[in-house]
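User: Before I run my own analysis I want an independent prediction to cross-check against. Here's the chain; please return only the structure tokens and, at the end, one sentence I can use as a sanity check.
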Amino acid sequence: MFETIKNAFATKEIRVKIFLTLLLLLVYRLGCYIPIPGLNSTAIAESVQGNDFLSILSMITGGSLSNGTIFALGILPFINAFIIMQLLTLVIPALERLSKEGDDGRKKLTQITRYFALILAAVQGVGIVLSWKNNAGGSLIEPTFGSEELTMAFIIAILMAGSTMVMWLGERITEYGIGNGTSLIIFVGILSSAGTVFLTAFKSLGQTPENIWRIIGMLLMIILIFVFIVFFDLAERRVQVQYAKQIKGNKVYGGQTQHIPIKVNSSGVMPIIFATSFLMFPQLIMQLFWPTSEAYYWYAQNMGTGSVVYYVLLPLFILFFAYFYAQIQFNPDDVAKNIQQYGGTIPGIRQGKPTADYLRKINNRITLFGAIFLAIIALIPTFIFKAISGPGVDFSNSFSATGLLIVVSVALEFNKQLESQIMMRHYKGFLQ
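Assistant: Structure tokens:
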């Protein structure tokens, strides 16, 4: 990877893209420190720290939510809109036709996703502001513009504008920089939250010297998780395909042996995100609108994050969504049809339906191992993080295996993007 970075900086065009990417990410991080007028930022940080769901959201936004800044919503509305649009494309024929119309169709889908993200930003902004207003310890909103209602409207507008700005920065990174802008923004947010936790831990060493062993244990745990994630992220099952020779005119085509790579964790972190969101959504809604109700306290105690039922249901939902997302990404019937169309066969398997059934069987088995891997990542490290945490050092909320999985996946994808850019430049130089 270091050799790839060295070669990338040696090429002027790629070097300019890297600096532009870093500049746009710097703009994003600066926005994470600009507070919204009319908010009690100290009380907001305390309320977010006491809620596991909001702590995860704050970690993804790089601490912007807990600081009450203009980028408090971050890129989350756009991510939610993108995921929902992907699911709707499968069930709405009009959206499915747009997805198959090439660049024009994709541009229209992107525009629809933007509008949908703006609507979600408004809904989430209203929900968060109402949560701050109805906080159990008292309203966190300080009337700055004459009345509390006018201040709330101003805060909602700022949150929507900030989310739109982050979405724009992500698209500019994707268009003019290197890598996926949305993923890099999440990547930077998680790393900044991790850096803040470690900085706090080092500051507490003078008061509690035993925290040095907690920090060392945490670093070792992170390294082991990184190795485990990289191993599974790169693991794949290669299905051999033999293509018959075809004579067209004076040329002979085919006669080659290729492989269809089926990744063990093809769905990435999405099943974990879907599963946790599905389990936390009722608690979030009740906290926003009925924070003092008995139903909220019952759900938080018996079904919420940290309860026994939550840890039992989470791996089951991860298994379900892993298979659900795998069906979206890999269609054995289409792959079998393409293999047959180009004169290919899987050794020992007949073309057509037997090939599709064989690929479906392999995909189901691979998905099972991927789901088990995600369930382990979502559960086991969480308990270890809590065990390592101690006085003055809390790793449980700021370090999650989900966040580490995102960091590793984005880093590997960024490395692949750099390698492809370097290879493209080499080919251009050779052709010139």
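Sanity check: The chain is about 70% helix and 5% strand.
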